[in-house]
């Protein structure tokens, strides 16, 4: 579904992503972990065309998407959520999903002219289905900015799902959540992946990642240091060292 080959991205002298080769199979929930600054978000940014690759290639399905523009990547069925949420605080929950569905993130829904009433009704129904699926149905008319964080993250997910992506990239979907909220988010991710959607999940919460993902890749300084089943990867000496070294560095 997604394949990268020796993918690299430098920022000045900093190698944020270094010759990363990965394959994510269709329908897989694949985990991407690593200490802060190890290049996880950069991978999402390069795959989605936010930053061009410095070197290497990216394929989606069988088709090469290296260095396409973000809008072109979205059109090919890739959606993502952001570590720092990108919802519209002063729009309602419903409007946020509606706007995402139209791919017109800056236009307010009431400014849209939709001459086709039947199509509009169908789109509204689809927004409601998405809110239902993400547990936000009873909050449709609330302002997004007024939601508690877990609901804001659900809304971010609903927006990503609005165009029914084949590949969903989730950047710390349980960031800032309590263990119970995290479990609920993991269950939700499992549900949205169930119809065979491919998901790649960046997360620091190892319990969640182990329970959710069949396979993991661990990055450190932009390089892959381990890949495989969660149990094997999380007990790998290089992985333990990367995390310990990082915590020691933070202290
Ligand atoms: N736009 C940018 N300009 C300069 N440096 C960047 C930029 N984006 C990321 N970086 C750097 O690249 C490295 C990897 O960052 P990132 O991919 O965000 O890490 P992670 O998501 O794993 O915490 C970090 O050192 C970060 O400071
Ligand atoms: Mg990040």
């Amino acid at each position: 579904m997604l394949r990268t080959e020796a993918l690299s991205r430098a920022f000045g002298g900093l190698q944020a992503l270094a010759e990363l080769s990965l394959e994510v199979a269709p329908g897989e929930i694949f985990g991407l972990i690593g200490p802060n600054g190890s290049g996880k978000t950069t991978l999402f940014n390069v795959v989605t065309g936010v930053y061009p690759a410095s070197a290497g290639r990216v394929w989606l399905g069988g088709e090469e998407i290296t260095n396409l523009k973000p809008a072109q990547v979205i059109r090919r069925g890739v959606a993502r959520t952001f570590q720092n949420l990108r919802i519209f605080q002063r729009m309602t929950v419903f409007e946020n999903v509606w706007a995402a569905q139209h791919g017109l993130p800056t236009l307010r829904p009431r400014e849209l002219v939709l001459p086709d009433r039947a199509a509009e009704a169908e789109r509204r129904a689809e927004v409601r289905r998405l809110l239902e699926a993400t547990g936000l149905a009873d909050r449709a008319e609330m302002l997004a900015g007024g939601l508690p964080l877990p609901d804001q993250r659900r809304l971010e997910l609903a927006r990503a799902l609005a165009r029914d992506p084949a590949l969903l990239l989730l950047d710390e979907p349980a960031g800032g959540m309590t263990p119970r909220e995290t479990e609920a988010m993991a269950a939700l991710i499992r549900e949205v992946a169930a119809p065979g959607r491919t998901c790649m999940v960046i997360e620091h919460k190892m319990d969640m990642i182990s329970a959710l993902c069949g396979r993991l890749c661990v990055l450190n300084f932009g390089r892959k240091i381990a890949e495989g089943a969660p149990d094997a990867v999380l007990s790998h000496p290089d992985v333990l060292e990367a995390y310990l070294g990082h915590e020691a560095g933070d202290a």
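DSSP finds nine helices and ten strands in the chain. The longest helix spans residues 117-133.
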